[in-house]
Structure to design on (613 residues):
């Protein structure tokens, strides 16, 4: 019997603590044939599981060019992520996927890219930034604006610094007012404000904005001022899921099933959907 | 000419299936309620007469999509994990005495359980099941099959349908090969022909309902019903078409298994994000989701209404809600 709910087994090959409550994990398929055959599109997600705790949905936050592993990143907030927090190198976890659509790279090709991320929304941006850098000739200027509540909540800090070394890449990091430390060199303010202050000039860019609903909402007027059409602005929805395959009935926004028809969609599309996310 | 079967012969048929180690499901009286249950003996089957009401209080969906089912087990030995497929037998089963509004739910559910990803648990149970429906000989004020395009003698999803002739005799109409395979030697030819109950009057127009819900995502009607609803989920659990589920880990005491359980959009945690944000934070949004899913989203996706008009949500609701009440309000325009 083909069992669509049964995960594949993967070995943990690296664990990194990103913040006080966020870790990133690298995985490799136990089955070498599967490892060789596996491919996905950057922007897709997986359902990751720790046996004895359960399954949770996360973006595959590595680039699809990294053939030796996949990565995901999580914040410890509930039962399953409590279990994931205990996972060490050499442990075996479960993976189902890849599910959903990915970023439409063929549409993005030839454009400047603006990435706007807040807090734990960095992983689905991180994979896109790496993928863009690995295909550098396909894209124009790359801007990354990333903010978190406090300095201690920023994830992938070393990678942000590495991206900034690339040509035609600008990285702006910020923390919410009050979240700065005495030696903080980055910006202070919320992502939409900091982005506006950054005065990014770009003709017909593609924007990927991922973060809490309030951040996305406040970013839209800034983009509008820059005459960027909602059709060029993308986001990735993060609704609660169980099955990942269009059956369990909870991730829909109106008639749009995030697991099958998302998680990536344009703001133009999102604005047509009811406020159900 | 028609084929006729007696109640005695029907019980004999059920008995033969039970003796063959197969499962037979039918309406059974349990205290003051009638429920679809696996039969222990053919005598317990309530084929038609149903003094507790016009139909059982549950639906037959649990025999295709159980309340709980093991998706797989896992064995943890140090760092080694072994996944074990469930020891599912998918025993051949016969459902006798299903109402047309139960059987009709199955072809509707086939869409979602086969939407690109094929759910073999559901499909295998569908394949091993034969459904003998009994046409309704009575309807009540909660019945609304007519409003969703069905009828008391609808044959959708049935392999055979029985129509009461009185005195423990039924006209048999076979619909599929599975149905035809059941009755050889058990029926007799007759000139009598049976009739089901007159269809309940149409109480709303699903097209009008869909137009309303598509245009009124924000509307006072949701809040009014949401305030009354106590989020118990009985509407969904007793619904022949509600199919939402959760996937959870049952720990060592329950056999180290990953288990699928029924769930409902009426529960607050159903859509709650890890961050605490909840797209459907209050009950009105959850009542709206149930109506939208049935009368707009499912029709848009699969071309069918996710409701058979059985009325279980109306009869079982402890606070007098249910799909019908909301839809008749919409139909009569109090909220337009």
């Amino acid at each position: 019997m083909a069992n669509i709910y049964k995960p594949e087994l993967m070995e943990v090959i690296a664990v990194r603590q990103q913040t006080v409550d966020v870790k990133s994990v690298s995985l490799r398929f136990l089955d070498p044939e599967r490892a060789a055959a596996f491919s996905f599109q950057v922007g897709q997600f997986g359902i990751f599981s720790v046996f004895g705790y359960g399954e949770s949905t996360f973006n595959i936050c590595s680039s699809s060019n990294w053939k030796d592993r996949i990565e995901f990143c999580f914040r410890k907030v509930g039962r399953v992520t409590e279990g994931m927090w205990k996972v060490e190198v050499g442990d075996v976890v479960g993976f189902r996927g890849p599910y959903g659509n990915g970023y439409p790279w063929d549409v993005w090709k030839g454009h400047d890219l603006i990435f706007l991320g807040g807090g734990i929304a960095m992983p689905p941006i991180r994979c896109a930034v790496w993928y863009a850098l690995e295909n550098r000739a396909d894209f124009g200027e790359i801007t990354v604006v990333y903010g978190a509540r406090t300095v201690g909540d920023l994830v992938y800090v070393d990678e942000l610094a590495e991206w900034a070394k690339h040509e035609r890449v600008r990285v702006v990091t910020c923390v919410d007012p009050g979240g700065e430390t005495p030696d903080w060199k980055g910006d202070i303010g919320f992502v939409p404000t900091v982005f506006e202050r950054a005065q990014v000039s770009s003709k017909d860019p593609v924007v990927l904005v991922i973060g809490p609903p309030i951040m996305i909402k406040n970013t839209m007027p800034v983009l509008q001022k820059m005459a960027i059409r909602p059709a060029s602005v993308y986001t990735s929805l993060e609704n609660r899921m169980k099955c990942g395959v269009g059956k369990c009935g909870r991730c829909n926004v109106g008639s749009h099933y995030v697991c099958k028809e998302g998680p990536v969609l344009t703001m133009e599309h999102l604005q047509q959907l009811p406020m159900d996310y | 000419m028609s084929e006729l079967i007696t109640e005695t012969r029907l019980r004999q048929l059920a008995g033969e299936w039970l003796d063959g180690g197969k499962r037979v499901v039918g309406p059974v009286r349990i205290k003051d309620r009638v429920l679809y249950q696996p039969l222990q003996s053919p005598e317990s089957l309530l084929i038609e007469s149903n003094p507790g009401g016009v139909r059982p209080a549950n639906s037959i969906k649990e025999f295709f999509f159980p309340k709980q089912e093991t998706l797989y087990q896992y064995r943890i030995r140090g760092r080694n994990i072994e996944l074990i497929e469930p020891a599912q037998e998918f025993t051949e089963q016969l459902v006798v005495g299903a109402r047309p509004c139960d059987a009709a739910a199955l072809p509707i559910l086939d869409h979602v359980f086969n939407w690109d990803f094929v759910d073999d648990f559901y499909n295998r149970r569908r394949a091993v099941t034969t459904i003998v429906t009994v046409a309704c000989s009575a309807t009540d004020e909660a019945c609304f099959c007519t409003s969703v395009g069905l009828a008391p003698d609808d044959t959708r999803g049935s392999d055979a349908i029985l129509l009461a002739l009185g005195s423990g005799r039924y006209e048999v109409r076979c619909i599929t090969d599975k149905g035809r395979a059941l009755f050889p030697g058990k029926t007799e030819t007759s000139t009598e022909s049976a009739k089901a109950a007159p269809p309940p009057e149409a109480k709303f127009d699903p097209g009008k309902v869909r137009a309303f819900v598509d245009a009124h995502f924000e509307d006072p009607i949701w809040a009014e019903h949401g305030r009354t609803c106590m989020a118990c989920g009985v509407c969904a659990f007793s619904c022949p078409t509600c199919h939402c589920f959760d996937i959870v880990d049952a720990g060592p005491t329950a056999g180290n298994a990953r288990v699928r359980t029924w769930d409902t959009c009426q529960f607050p945690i159903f859509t709650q994000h890890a961050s605490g944000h909840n797209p459907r934070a209050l009950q009105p949004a959850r009542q709206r989701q149930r109506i939208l899913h049935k009368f707009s989203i499912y029709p848009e996706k699969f071309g069918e209404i996710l409701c058979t008009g059985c009325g279980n949500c109306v009869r079982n609701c402890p606070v007098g809600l249910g799909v019908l009440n909301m839809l008749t309000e919409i139909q009569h325009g109090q909220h337009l």
The two ends of chain B are 51 Å apart (CA to CA).
